[in-house]
Amino acid sequence: MTSFPPETCCYKGIKHEGTAKGKLSQLSGFEVYTAFPESQSTEKGILILTDIIGHKFINTQLIADQFAENGYLVLVPDLFDGDAVPLNRPHGMGMQAWRNGVHHPQGTAHLPLNIDPIVDACLAEMRTKYGCKSINTKLTIFYLLPQKIGAVGYCFGAKYVVRHLNPDVFKIDVGYIAHPSFVTMEELRGIKGPLSIAAAETDAIFPAEKRHESEEILKEISLPYQVNLYGGVTHGFVFAVRGDLKSRAALFAKETAFMQALQWFRKHLKN
């Protein structure tokens, strides 16, 4: 694996202030948070795949709104069928048990079998209903304009950005992930588009050896990539959705990690 499974640090955090501007709605049987840019343009889209706290967490929604303010249509789906982990949930909850669906009313496991279709449904919605284009110019028989969908993956969600980073088949075109978990070497080797990674100096889930392993794989596949390391912060920081903003290091990391993503998309989502 290029990253370890989530641990307790994945569901600790401090709520950031603000009021979400987007809306919650239903899509193919699951809930999705959608934020539009001021122009209401849907030409460029970003799909945010969340950490285990899910799409209703205000910090995640504020990040989505920030991308929208920079000109992007943003979708944030519920990856967990209402079974997201509450913020600062007691340590008694086992992460593997949660992932296997033990806490879900119907026993639905939070595994690729159930999450991949949610990602696919969002991408289809963005390309059809919202008309987000594709940078794949070889298949213009289906999509007449060049493409533009980027994806952001935080912790748990990073795995699914990596799994679906394949513009050749109208999946995700450009990826950005922060402190990934559950990503396998095979998944990382399988990407077909540019990938940017934001990493914490201290991270038991994505430690230095896993980061270096990921860098070697990215070198081998010879696609555009970026790995930024943020000093003085731990696993939760890069989320940039759960850092304690009273900490200067966390505030710097939040703002800089967001700019990292924004600059990456501006470079690689253009025609």
From TrEMBL:
Signal peptide: none annotated. SUPFAM superfamilies: alpha/beta-Hydrolases (SSF53474). GO terms for molecular function: hydrolase activity. Pfam families: DLH. Residues 30-268 form the Dienelactone hydrolase domain. Keywords: Hydrolase. The keyword Transport does not apply. The keyword Membrane does not apply. This is Hydrolase tropI. The gene is tropI_1.
